[in-house]
Known about the structure:
Blueprint (H helix, E strand, L loop, with lengths): L1 H22 L2 H5 L3 E6 L6 H13 L8 E6 L6 H9 L7 E4 L4 H7 L12 E7 L3 E6 L7 H6 L2 E4 L6 H13 L3 E4 L5 H10 L4 E5 H7 L2 H4 L3 E7 L13 H4 L3 H11 L1 H4 L1 E5 L5 H15 L2 H9 L7 E2 H12 L3 H10 L6
Parallel strand pairs: 1-2, 1-3, 6-7, 6-8
Antiparallel strand pairs: 3-10, 4-10, 4-11, 5-8, 5-9
Helix pairs in contact: 3-15, 5-16, 7-12, 12-17
Amino acid sequence: MQTLKGFFLAAVATGLLTGAAQAQAPADFYKGKTVEFLIGYATGGSNDVYARMVAQHMGKHIPGNPTVIVRNMPGAGSFLAVNQIFNASPKDGTVIGLGAPTLALDEKLGTTGVRFKTAELNWVGRVGPLVNIVFTAKSSPVKTMADAQMREATLGGTGAGSTVSIYPLVLNNVLGTKFKIIMGYKGSSEAMLAVERGEVEGHSTAYEAVRTSKPSWFKDGSINVLSQFGLKRLPELPDVPTAIETADTPEKKQILTAIMSASEIGTSFFTTPKTPADRLEALRRAFDATMADPAFTGDLARLSMGMGPMKGEDLQKLVTEVSNMSPELLEKVRKAYPEEGK
């Protein structure tokens, strides 16, 4: 009897402790904790720069002022990091991730390597849209999209699941361009060095990545910018057509619009599924405060990096919309999306 009574009391005590932990205020929970930013990209690119800058300033806005650290986990187009966060990271709001803007589309299409459900991730906020460009070196005979439809151009690639590779191959499948992706580069910084060395003719990556690491390329005409992968032209590139504008039929425009919607998800941060609601709220409001922090915006300005913030709640809706694409449109997108290994 005493044993049963002791077991009962122990169970009650455990339940009370568990309940107390769950009811712990965010400030109490985060005090003395470490929050990890897990970046699905190599160091040096625009994604890495944005993530490190957010991490540098966000800690002071999280209740309890936890220590914030950054770790890079590149690979498989950021899938390694996203899979880690979805499946293995603590579901307590102590890990924040940055992955490819195409995650929802990749999940919908069943892309190899996806072991996550995008809408179940808890989205914290967006720094800004992420518009990619495709460019070639000045010396390349491929200087326009019309040229790219006539002759092959080699582009440095970083991973099958990355927009670096996806977008040019989508253009091959939809618009008949002849881009050839040379895989194996660890990040866009390395791929751009390959362009300088003449190993490849060009590269496709975020406009911000080129603007921050190679600003002179735009000023001195070192590169030919063939196309931009967004829903509308960037103000900085008013004469460069979007991929959607290049399409010559309504169906092609519809397909490219669905795929380029990833540009609106952009540079966005998320935390694990099942994160307690009050901690998610705390992270979202801390992110919003960071976006308005003069120290953060000043750092962006000094690096000539743009921003266009979106709240986590709105971002969650956007991701869900992409995840709920109609079966008819999904089938068209599936045919346009690059096959594994191409």
